[in-house]
TrEMBL record:
Subcellular localization: Cell membrane
GO molecular function: efflux transmembrane transporter activity
Primary localisation category: membrane
Annotated keywords: Coiled coil, Lipoprotein, Membrane, Palmitate, Transmembrane, Transmembrane beta strand
Membrane topology: Lipid-anchor
Coiled-coil region(s): 405-463
Name of the protein this chain belongs to: NodT family efflux transporter outer membrane factor (OMF) lipoprotein
Protein family membership: Belongs to the outer membrane factor (OMF) (TC 1.B.17) family.
Amino acid sequence: MRITYFKSIFLGLGVLLTLNGCKLLKPVEPPTAVQAPPSYLASRDSASIGTIRWREFFADPFLISLVDTALQNNLDLRIALQRIEAARTDVWLRRAAMLPVVGAEVSGGVRRYGDYTMDGVGNYDTNFSDRIDENRRIPNPVPDYFVGLRSAWEVDLWGKLRNQREAAYARFLATEKGRQLVLTQLIAEVATRYYELLALDNELDILRKNGQLQQSAVETIVIQKQGGRANELAVRQFRAQLLNTQGLEVQKNQEIIEIENQLNLLLGRFPQSIRRGEPIRQQVLPADVKAGIPSASLRRRPDVQQAELELLATRSDLQAARVAFLPSLTITAHSGFNAFKSALLFSPGSAAYGLLAGLSAPLINRRALKASQRRAETTSLEALYNYNKTLLTGYQEVVTNLRKLENLEQIEAFKEQEVEELRQAVAVSNDLFLAGYATYLEIITAQKTVLEAELELTRIQKEQFVTLITLYRSLGGGWE
């Protein structure tokens, strides 16, 4: 009767565990990701500058040399490589968890049993038996020696260990995409700093040329003052303008030093002069800039791929957390020599082995498992939101930089015409001043205006290169 009672209990527990298992083994429903508009799916040319190798995208050999140096020495890139190795070891650990653990063991211990216990009474009678020899008599306290192998193996019944391995592998791939992301950002940063240097060089050249013209103007106005055709106020105004230009030259030199040091940091070396190629006015932009189909081009972006892999990893974590409520099957085994006398430890009669298999499942206090599941759910949602944000950011960057390139091209054309008109105005104002039909203030204004316009034109040209580099990075360019 009692055996039937226990059988009923075990059968009921088995039914409950089975029903619970059927519910938990249902696949995790993935949350909905953001959907791209139809116009982003197939409405544009499939070609994209993001597929161009960076050595072909950049035409300046000095810039290519700098990028090569950065790829060899940059510290952020080396840090990313170490993260990959750390993730690789985690994959190895998860794979090893699916295999039996076998270890060699040499152990010894001692235990004294009480006289009025089951062991004490049983051993007392046994030691008086005439059927055992002296070697089999049990001492009190009793030593225990073991030399052999022990093994433990958790059988992956429900896929918990497999899901954990898949999550680790997805994160390993995500760290590789993280390295590619660092690579694209590094190449874009080096190229941006390089073109900023070229722009500063051009601005410095403009300031020096204007400074020479202003120096000549100061000498001319001094002569005219001596001849009675100008006053001291005019002389001081011209000198003030020259001093302002000289101050701007010093400021540009300092900016050049700062950009060079930032670039040297990216290259992983101490501050030193940066070799430059052709001036920025002679650098060539690609004749045809294509973004391709946005939805396909953004798939090249390492940050999008990294966010997608992180999302897959969190889903595997969530599935592993769900099946952790199910019973786990553990098999333990041992084989070796076991004896309570050291002299008899390696005798044939001391050979021993054992095998044990058991199912265990949490029944009462499952708060820790529920907390792990809740954390996996929130982490999965966080990864989804991060993936959606990365996609939206990618679309925004591509659209913004494409339109910006178009607008900068028009602005540059207008600014070049403005600079040419202002240069002509400076020449005319000088002639009129010498003929007595213009004041010195008109000359100063004309010189100041053309200087500001020339500097602004250089900044627009620099912005074109920076925007193109940003678009190239936004389309997933810069890594192979």
